[in-house]
Design a protein that fits this description.
The protein has helices at residues 4-13, 34-44, 57-65, 80-84; strands at residues 51-54, 69-73, 90-91. It is α/β, with parallel strands linked by helices.
């Protein structure tokens, strides 16, 4: 649900941007949902194995809806106890993401 330019900037600063084939984020004022973006993307790439990185239960739900792998970040919007219940890999720092790429 992040603005695409901000998301790309954050990934660039962390040295992660080139690790992704495609990065999705909001690119207009219409604020379409991340679920809709994910479903549209999966429709265009039916054979792809996407990785969804998020920090909420909703992110895990969206990943599940499109059959994506999902990693949840513990430094975000929801506490560890809630995210642990989703039975997805958890990371405490963004650089930890590299071990999954």
């Amino acid at each position: 649900a992040s603005n695409l330019q901000q998301l790309e900037g954050q990934l660039s600063r962390l040295g992660l941007k080139d690790a992704f084939d495609e990065i999705l984020g909001l690119d207009n004022i219409h604020a379409r949902s991340k679920a809709l973006l994910a479903i549209e993307w999966k429709t265009r790439h039916p054979d792809a194995r996407p990785l969804f990185v998020g920090d909420t239960e909703h992110d895990a739900d969206v990943a599940e809806a499109i059959g994506a792998d999902c990693i949840l970040y513990l430094g975000g919007h929801q506490p560890m106890e809630i995210l642990e219940a989703r039975k997805r890999p958890l990371i405490r720092t963004i650089p930890e993401l590299l071990q999954y790429l």
